[in-house]
Amino acid sequence: MLTSSPSTTSALALIADDMRGVDAVIESRLASGVPLVGEVSRYIISAGGKRLRPALLLLVSGALGYRGDQRFNLAAVVEFIHTATLLHDDVVDDSTLRRGRPTANQQFGNAASVLVGDFLYSRAFQMMLDAGNMRVMEILAEATNVIAEGEVLQLMNMHDASIDEAGYLRVIRSKTAKLFEASTRLAAVLAGSTPEVEQACAEYGQALGTAFQVIDDVLDYDGDATEMGKNLGDDLREGKATLPLIAAMHRGSEADRAIVRRAIENGSVDDLQAIVGIVRNTGALEVARDAAAQEAQRAIDCLWHLPRNEHSEGLLQLPSSLLGRRH
After folding, report:
1. Contact 216/185 with Cβ under 8 angstroms?
2. Which domain holds residue 305?
3. Please, how many CA atoms are within 13 Å of residue 244, restricted to the half-sphere of its CB?
4. Fewer Cβ neighbours under 10 Å: the N or C end of the chain?
5. To which protein family does this belong (predicted)?
6. Distance in angstroms (rounded) separating the CA atoms of residues 306 and 204
7. Could you give the number of structural domains in the chain?
8. Within-domain flag for 327
9. CA distances (Å), 41 to each of 20, 77, 81, 258, 268, in order?
10. 82-99 pLDDT, tens per residue?
11. At 154, phi and psi to the nearest 5?
């Protein structure tokens, strides 16, 4: 059973000073002789967001007692990699709204978004060298490769209504959870942890990242567009068979299945209201939330390997707080 108290704010408050150190690194490493590079980068980074990946690296570093400056550098690296994936994702998905304002591709065009995403990837790899640690390079090189594979796999799965839960989880564990996993594993490596502790930290990140994405997909049918800062039904418009839709097809009537299947295959939101009703009435949201809760519990179970302190308590709070989020 989940035992942590639902407070993301208190967990993140522990690393508020550290996050300012990360922000300083981000600001300094965005410098470029090409003005558009900095303009596009700052546009998307300044939009805010949860900064969960760097936050996880900082929280695990704190839990394991690592206080070196490389925690700021590598936290900035994972944020750059994440930002690069957002820039590329929004072009691939033809998205128009993120975090409550126009996407970078809407603001600056697809070409600028793709190329600045490339800049952020290459700058991240330059920054990795500062750690002087081949294990760090190995973790981040593998993570970026797996993320790219996940993106391609998701592209292949577009408009395929036959995708099952296992296929869905394979995509999100590659596309989303892998960078969470890398963030927590990096902190363990910086702290010189044992292989057992490193693996526990990595599994915590993977489980938390999986839970985060499942809830994100739930909110596409159970969220508020104003709070979320994106258009509801975007996943359906892109032809993505996410867990709420998979569960709805499994639990609904033949007529329900036909409506959902047709929408996925056509990438149509014409029947969005009917599909929202199907997802809610079949209990599909509860199925998805239960799946996220199992992942959150898996994350919590990994924390027995870490020392007991305020930072590990913060890590204990995060899974249940993410389950209750509305945006």
Report:
1. no
2. 8-321
3. 25
4. N
5. Belongs to the FPP/GGPP synthase family.
6. 11
7. 1
8. no
9. 18, 13, 12, 42, 32
10. 999 999 988 988 888 877
11. -65, -40
